[in-house]
Predict the 3D structure of the following.
Amino acid sequence: MAYANLPLEKLTEHLERLPGIGRKSANRLAFHLLYMPQADAQALAQAVEEARTRIHECPICCNLTDSPRCPICEDVRRDRSVICVVEDPRNVPAIERTRGYNGLYHVLHGTISPLDGRGPEQLRVKELLHRLSDEGVTEVIMATNPTVEGDYTAMYLSRLLKPLNIKVTRLAYGIPVGGDLEYADEVTLSRSLEGRSEL
Amino acid sequence: MAYANLPLEKLTEHLERLPGIGRKSANRLAFHLLYMPQADAQALAQAVEEARTRIHECPICCNLTDSPRCPICEDVRRDRSVICVVEDPRNVPAIERTRGYNGLYHVLHGTISPLDGRGPEQLRVKELLHRLSDEGVTEVIMATNPTVEGDYTAMYLSRLLKPLNIKVTRLAYGIPVGGDLEYADEVTLSRSLEGRSEL
């Protein structure tokens, strides 16, 4: 463009890189940010920075938290003999909402996907094995997404854990195949927790 | 929620307030911001703050700019005898893209809309009148949106300017009625510039 407004273009470019936001939406958001009250715009910018500086992985379960350890790992009322393994931090509140699970979690932060060049070493598998050697865990529930990569990751982990004499189970297929755990409703998720089967 | 992650929830809430972004999208964006490289997240936050601190209205045409005066008002090659009046800063690049206009602009920052409690005093009408008394302007083109409020604003301004012996014209109705100037294609916009009629 001949007449540049650099701060505006820069802001639009940054917004355009976010998922699900195209050029027109980015432009609309940028103008919204310009016209909204100064304090609100600043609060949004600060919320981004604060989230990035304060949120880190729990040293035990690898879930995202702003405490030294995450509140679930800290909670003495949780059953420490079961660990539910999920792909993504967003899956933890999804399972919590069922109110059908009282054990601990382990967040892998991804799946094994050789096509995308992601092997087990990119996931928090080492951290999971470390927990199993210490904590008196008797069951590991695989709650990866019901996709090819999720299933493969669950199979891979179950083979890794079998020699440790730990019961490895998988969420029942009440979840629609090919779907995403994040968007499953509470009842469906509850059913698949109840009907979990040994791998 | 029983297990709170406050910085994450705060970030999600702020994102949810943006136009066109619901709860799920806000959550998805928040996690994207957490997983993207630290430098990119910080750059986005800084772009928001920088846009807010550096962008202001041009003292002449009221367009948004990061220079003391906007580059169009500063450009000596522009025809200073014509002013094109638009509702919104986004309409300026839309008209610039037609390459069919070489005059100056005036940005009203809204329309007159009695139902929403917006009168002429909320718009940059005073600033427009001030320019017309100084600058040797012979024509004012009304390029407000072809909506009820846009038409009403154009009519209001034309009655205000007629006594000053200035030719007041309106963009031709090549623009689809009820549409938004921002999304009109270049050809349609060019046609309506060419076919402008006196009010």
Q: What stands out?
A: Residues 78-173 of chain A form a domain with the Dna Topoisomerase Vi A Subunit; Chain: A, domain 2 fold (CATH 3.40.1360.10). The mean pLDDT of chain A is 88. The radius of gyration of chain A is 21 Å. Chain A touches chain B through 55 residues (CB under 8 Å).
